[in-house]
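Bug #77: duplicate submission created two jobs. Keeping one. Sequence:
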Amino acid sequence: QRAIVDAQEALGGQRERMGEFDAAYFAALTRLEGATRRLDTEAQAKVAASTAEAFRVVLAITLVVLLSALGAAVFLSRRVTKPIERLTGHVRRLRRDGDLSVAMDTSLTRRPDEVGLLSRSFDRLVDELADARRRLLADSEAEIRQQYERLQAAIGAMPQGLFLLDAEGRL
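Kept job's structure:
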């Protein structure tokens, strides 16, 4: 029995040392858990700060790109629309005044792009139209002169007078 009692006492001492070991182990785990939570909180704060900074940088870059694109679009649209507006203004002046001798803006006809091609084509069209108008007027004046001379010759060859009546029979 003594051996059993000795074994129980030894076992009790072992249990006591095991309890101390367990207490030390759980204390170390508690400290480790606290340190892990603290590191996790710090890491989350750093990630949140980095994410916010990245968002600000991306937002700034996006704004710069959008403003640059808007500026380029305005520049290009004005580069295209201004010459077309000048060409349209020239057409309106031609229609309003009827003077086909007014020259087109040379900055339009010297352009190497489609607007320049359109301007040169329109300028040639106006020149051809002015020539056709001059020929038509010259031909019409010649025809009127010829008819006038015939009428004068017919009136001069009449031995008696001539009178003309309108549609209502008035002199």
